Automatic annotation (TrEMBL):
Belongs to the UPF0301 (AlgH) family. SUPFAM superfamilies: VC0467-like. Pfam families: DUF179. PANTHER family: UNCHARACTERIZED PROTEIN YQGE, UPF0301 PROTEIN YQGE. This is UPF0301 protein TPR58_21140. It comes from the Bacteria. InterPro entries: AlgH-like.
Length: 186
């Protein structure tokens, strides 16, 4: 069993009262976490008025049979940069395997493959990401704010976006209505 303290391949669920409106009811798929920092993609909210076809047209890619699904709010860092979380059955030049659970691609080749019908079986498109500097996420995990849980690909691909946060807590056996919105001090 891997005993590293790192959270790659896990989900971070924002605790009630996290204190940052950008992360209220957020669920982050952690794609990288090591001594140098962490990076994840938000999967719990979409960007109003932005669909996949909008992005494809910006890159002069014909949508083909690709559905015009909403684009997710990946996080506040580099909000114009796109990412695709996807199943591990497709690999591009820059694709990163995330703990054997899902993959992350950030170049245009994955969008072309999706439009052509040759891309990954399951995928989610996001703009922006959540990032933490060296030791920052580790320190945040010691305070009220985030709850981490094992990565479940069904949560990414089989649960409606608006239900992911609630479903994540339910999967962990927790009713978020019963959680305090702050912690005390001793």
């Amino acid at each position: 069993m891997d005993s590293t303290p790192f959270l790659t391949g896990q989900f971070l669920l924002a605790m009630p009262g996290i204190g940052d409106p950008q992360f209220e009811r957020a669920i982050i798929a952690v794609c990288a976490h090591d001594e140098e920092g962490a990076m994840g993609i938000g999967i719990g909210a979409t960007i109003d008025g932005v669909g996949l076809h909008d992005l494809l047209h910006q890159f002069e890619i014909e949508p083909g049979d690709a559905p015009d699904v909403p684009v997710h709010f990946g996080g506040p860092v580099e909000p114009r940069r796109g990412f695709v979380l996807h199943s591990t059955d497709w690999q591009g030049q820059d694709t990163i395997d995330v703990a054997g659970l899902w993959a992350l691609s950030g170049t245009i080749d994955v969008l072309r493959a999706i439009a052509e019908g040759t891309g990954p079986r399951d995928w989610l498109v996001a703009l922006g990401y959540a990032g933490w500097g060296e030791g920052q996420l580790d320190e945040e995990m010691t305070r009220h704010g985030w709850f981490n849980m094992r990565g479940e690909t069904d949560l990414i691909y089989s649960v409606e976006t608006e239900a992911r946060w609630q479903t994540g807590f339910a999967t962990a056996g927790i009713d978020p209505r019963m959680l305090a919105s702050s912690t005390g001090t001793a």
